[in-house]
Amino acid sequence: MTSQSIQFTHPVPTPPQRWSVAAVEELFKLPFADLLFQAQQVHRAHFDPNQVQLS
Question: Where are the domains of the chain?
Answer without folding.
Answer: 21-46
